[in-house]
């Protein structure tokens, strides 16, 4: 199997040529500080090259001195000694992807601690089957690390003690690892990708928050998490652990992805509302939505009402004030018909804000399914009936024949009939996966179709004038 150096020479030539020489052509000659024949691109991708070692250190250092992003995913690296040899010869690397290399071998403490790599800020270790003591060693060796990817590594617990786990370290009552994080491990880490690991206990996930106290973004989607409750255990908890809340470990968390987890009650949503800094949240694919008989629009209204501080929900744009107000009123009306014992605390809180609302004749949160919209493209105007559950991307495809140009060259602008009378301009429909109903679209509204090329030309002419 080739070394990294040999893979480089195969791809760029023995002397590092990026482009083959061109004969019989006049060229402008300049003298760079460093000959391009002795270096490789600053963003270096060598996937699926069967690389298993670094190669000659002096030659590698000469070629990779200016590399800042290095992608070595899907290779044959198994020895951490070779990984560190690569890092030693690429002193400017800020991004390193080692995904799908089998790096389950134990990382030696001496390897990790000396030297320290102060430039590396983004490390990707997805599906490397790295062990927790090795993760701990790397964190100590990478003081500038801000983003870490540990997805698909079969982690069912979190152990950042730096020690190997013994059988008697697991609780007999709940089978969790009875080793808590007592102090921060890395205070610069801001983003952690932990998706697709078989971890089910939020208490284990919370260890990540205590280890990385300034964490701002956490992805635990595709993990079988059953509840956000700290799930105390009489056998392995002390009194202080029983008083911990699900958000205690995440004081600075702004983005959380919980898609396709096993959360199944509205209580979990109420717990998320207590995360002090949370602004962006993804909660799709929960068993709760399968049990709750409603449309996606109804679910969104109830979620928006329960999450007053979340600005972005399941992607897309920021929740506008008018949608939040409508959601809170819909929430009150939804629970007005429920027995008082079934009304959550949020109901009484919102009644205190909006008062007791008059019940509607028919409480139906679903938008009108089909509406009549006027489509305008240049001099062409046509009224069509549109399904409001269609996405913006799908609508563009359906409008290609009317517009006369492909969807990829198309921009859509929504004109609300009421706002048009108030001389308020159109809103661009910029999110391809957003469904039309989320614009509160109604019969009589207008959508303007504009070619990106025409818009660019118009902007260019105006700027020239």
TrEMBL record:
Ribosomal protein in keyword set: no
Keywords: Leucine-rich repeat, Repeat
PROSITE patterns reported for this sequence: LRR, UBIQUITIN_2
Domain Ubiquitin-like, residue spans: 385-452
Xref: InterPro entries: Leu-rich_rpt, LRR_dom_sf, TBCEL_Ubl, Ubiquitin-like_dom, Ubiquitin-like_domsf
Pfam families attached to this UniProt entry: Ubiquitin_2
UniProt name for this protein: Ubiquitin-like domain-containing protein
Organism the protein comes from: Euphydryas editha (Edith's checkerspot)
Species lineage: Eukaryota, Metazoa, Ecdysozoa, Arthropoda, Hexapoda
């Amino acid at each position: 199997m080739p070394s990294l150096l040999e893979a480089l020479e195969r791809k760029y030539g023995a002397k590092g040529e990026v482009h083959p020489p061109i004969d019989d052509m006049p060229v402008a000659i300049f003298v760079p500080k460093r000959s391009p024949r002795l270096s490789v691109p600053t963003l270096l991708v060598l996937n699926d090259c069967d690389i298993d070692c670094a190669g000659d250190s002096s030659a590698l250092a000469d070629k990779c001195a200016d590399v800042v992003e290095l992608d070595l995913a899907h290779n044959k690296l198994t020895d951490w000694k070779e990984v560190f040899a690569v890092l030693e010869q690429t002193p400017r690397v800020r991004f390193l992807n080692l995904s799908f290399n089998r790096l389950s071998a134990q990382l030696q403490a001496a390897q990790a601690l000396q030297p320290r790599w102060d430039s590396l800020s983004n490390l990707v270790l997805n599906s490397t089957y790295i062990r927790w003591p090795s993760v701990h060693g790397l964190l100590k060796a990478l003081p500038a690390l801000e983003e870490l990817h540990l997805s698909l590594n079969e982690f069912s617990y979190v152990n950042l003690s730096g020690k190997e786990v013994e059988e008697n370290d697991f609780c007999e009552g709940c089978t969790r690892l009875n080793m808590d994080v007592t102090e921060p491990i890395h205070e610069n880490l801001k983003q952690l990708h932990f998706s697709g690991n078989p971890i089910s206990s939020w208490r284990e996930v919370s260890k990540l928050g205590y280890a990385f106290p300034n964490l701002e973004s956490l992805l635990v989607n595709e993990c079988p998490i059953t509840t956000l409750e700290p799930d105390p255990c009489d056998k392995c908890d002390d009194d202080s652990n029983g008083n911990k809340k699900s958000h205690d470990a995440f004081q600075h968390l702004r983005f959380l992805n919980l898609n396709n987890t096993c959360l199944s009650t509205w209580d979990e949503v109420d717990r998320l509302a207590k995360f002090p800094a949370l602004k962006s949240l993804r909660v799709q694919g929960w068993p709760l939505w399968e049990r709750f008989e409603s449309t996606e629009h109804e679910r969104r209204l109830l979620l928006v009402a329960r999450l007053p501080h979340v600005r972005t929900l399941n992607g897309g744009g920021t929740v506008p004030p008018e949608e939040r107000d409508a959601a809170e009123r819909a929430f009150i009306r939804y629970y007005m018909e429920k027995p008082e014992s079934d009304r959550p605390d949020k109901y009484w809180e919102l009644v205190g804000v909006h008062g007791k609302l008059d019940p509607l004749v028919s409480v139906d949160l679903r938008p009108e399914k089909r509406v009549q919209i006027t489509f305008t493209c240049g001099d062409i105007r046509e009224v069509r009936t549109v399904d409001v559950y269609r996405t913006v991307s799908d609508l563009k495809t359906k409008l290609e024949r009317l517009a006369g140009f492909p969807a990829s060259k198309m921009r859509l602008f929504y004109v609300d009939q009421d706002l048009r009378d108030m001389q308020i301009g159109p809103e661009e429909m910029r999110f391809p996966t957003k469904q039309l109903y989320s614009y509160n679209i109604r019969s009589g509204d207008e959508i303007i179709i504009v070619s990106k090329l025409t818009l660019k030309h118009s902007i260019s002419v105006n700027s020239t004038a």
